[in-house]
Amino acid sequence: MPYILNTEADRKAMLEKIGAASVSELFTTIPQPFQLNRALNVPESLCEMELQQHIIELARRNASADDAVCFLGGGSYDHFIPSVVDVVASRSEFYTAYTPYQAEASQGSLQAFFEYQTLIAQITGLDVSNASLYEGGSAVAESVLMAISINLDRSKVVIAESVHPEYRLTLSTYLANLNKQIVTVPTPGGAIDPAELAKVVDDQTLCVIVQHPNFFGNLEAVDAVSSLCKAKGALFVSSIDAISLGILKRPGQYGADIAVGEGQCLGTAMQFGGPYLGLMACRDEFVRKIPGRIVGQTTDRNGKRCWVLTLQTREQHIRREKATSNICTNQGLFALRASVYLAALGPQGLRETANLCLQKAHYLADELCKIPGVSLKFKQPFFKEFTVQVPGDAPALLAKLLKAGYHGGLALGRWYATLGNCVTIAVTEKRTRAELDGFVAAFRASV
Question: What are the pLDDT digits (tens) for 364-421?
């Protein structure tokens, strides 16, 4: 990592500027019992060359998605990223850009966000998209805060157990100090049962949250969920996989009011699991309630096309009582990557990518189920992820697969006590026939 060191002269100049005689004087306000008063117990400093070598050695202890064939999923996927994404995102005017408060100085960033919003609105089939949500989990939570501002008199939030467990934990954290009830609908069959959902959705239901495809990889009965929400006056929040929209119905087509999702699959590498980019889109009537930022297109005094932050002022980001949420980061670089990715693929490329994921996932599932003791856990249609039940301990199996050169999937016992012998496996367009067949052979040898 590039850096510029502070020389003794630099430190002296800074101390003089702030009126302190020494660095230790800066800490005099800390009570003596809490001061260390000794040297730090750390090794001697290294020169730059030695430090680089040390960091490389530490990094080699990790097995990245490039070091082993990757079947990991659950919101972070090993999709192919066209080279143009890195080229554009590496331009200094983008990766050094700050929050675009001053439109006259931020036209490039604002245009990039506007293009991003347009693309997300197109793939979701909804009217409005925003920018600057943190990641998939907080996008779910922010959608509920948005729903609260729309339906002030309702208090019940209904969410399927098949929604990513970490998304559900994030939602619980957001609502911990609010007078709202979270009702989790069990999904023992791997997807929500509309009949069971109907038992808990009533005139106090604020919103219903379903992930489609869900955490197990299965497709949900979104049309039935949408009809139920409309009948009860509840908002329908759909958490989506953006790649799946190349072949599945868009949220706007099946009646979702708000669509959210994790944007990592759109041109961002796995990067230690995130955080990445939260997607959100909604129907036009809710535009004044949507969190984050909205960039609008207009014309300047000379009649030229230009871009501005719209439906919100700078004060909204600073004065908490005026804000639609407390989102204050700039996820613009991830949004830019998503824009370049979608523009590079185009509608046909997105459709082909989704279809490759679908076909390869079903091929692998069929082959794995030929192994004695291995079977699909759920009898549900799935997209690019599927859940298998394995004989014995799932984490032990995955450890064997990693030694054989495969990131074998996610052991579900971490989140679901009754699924300790189950593994969810994700297959992207990157996986070759040789890799799939090799994984089956390694799986057979490991169970």
Answer: 999 999 999 999 999 999 999 999 999 999 999 999 999 999 999 999 999 999 999 9
The predicted-structure confidence for 25-52, as pLDDT tens digits, reads as follows 999 999 999 998 888 899 998 988 999 9
- The per-residue pLDDT for 316 is 56
Strands 385-389 vs 375-376: parallel, antiparallel or unpaired: antiparallel
Distance CA 18, CA 90 (A): 37
191 within 8 A of 223, measured Cβ to Cβ: no
CATH of 69-81+353-446, one of 3.40.140.20, 3.90.1150.10, 3.40.47.40, 2.30.300.10: 3.90.1150.10
On the question of pLDDT at 313 being above 60, the answer is no
Overall average pLDDT of the 189-199 stretch: 98
Evaluate whether 409 touches 426 at the Cβ level (below 8 Å): yes
For every residue of 12-59, DSSP letters joined together read HHHHHHHT-SSSGGGGTTS-GGG---S--S-PPP--HHHHHHHHHHHH
Cα separation of 279 and 283, whole Å?
Answer: 14
Q: How far is CA 157 from CA 141, 151, 207, in A?
A: 11, 11, 5
